[in-house]
Amino acid sequence: MDYLLSGFLEAVRLLMSGESGVYTIVGVSVFVAVSAILLASVMGLPAGYFLATHRFRGQRLVTTVLNTLLAMPTVVIGLFVYSLISRRGPLGFLELLYTPKAMIIGETILALPIVAAFTLSAIRAVDSRITETALTLGATTAQTARTLISEARYGIMAAVVAAFGRVIAEVGAAMMLGGNIKGSTRTMTTAIALESSKGEFGLAIALGIILLLTAFGANILFHWLQGFDD
Hints:
Layout: H1 2-17, H2 22-53, H3 59-69, H4 74-85, H5 100-124, H6 128-136, H7 141-151, H8 153-168, H9 172-178, H10 188-197, H11 201-229
Helix pairs in contact: 1-11, 2-5, 2-8, 3-5, 4-5, 4-9, 5-8, 5-9, 6-7, 8-11, 10-11
């Protein structure tokens, strides 16, 4: 309990003083996570909608692969992206390794299956009679899509929030692709790992508390949007 209490007090002190580059660390974490979520949403939401509303050969296999990717270890994603953007990789000339861009790529790959799979489930959970009714009333394809998305909006928002929670707390790919460089690619999770290895448990716990507060804030925003939508 003393560790937790001292960690909480340290978190308050760090936020008040801005020491140890805490604002930079939090800023990098939020920037990378939000960027990855935006990219994953742009690709994952249409993919999930398409899988939920279309029938094609191999659809079950695609869905199975998508669900399997939900459990993809972050270090495997980090290794895959590292092999592509390292100096000896095919994209090495872009010099992305150990930059926030590399971290965004890795975390986008991590978030994409979550957004797509949860969107797929949310769309499929909508009563099929809604689509039939819309088509009977002469709705166009775009109007029908808007109706489905409106009915599944809470599930879709939950998909985005779940993906954000996964990437903001990710450490494996961030460490491999970002290198934990102070002032550039150091995130809350990589800083926690570093400070713990150094025996600086007060700072590590403080950053952990800030990380939890960040995730808590994302969920508050989600519930606020639900209430605002009602």
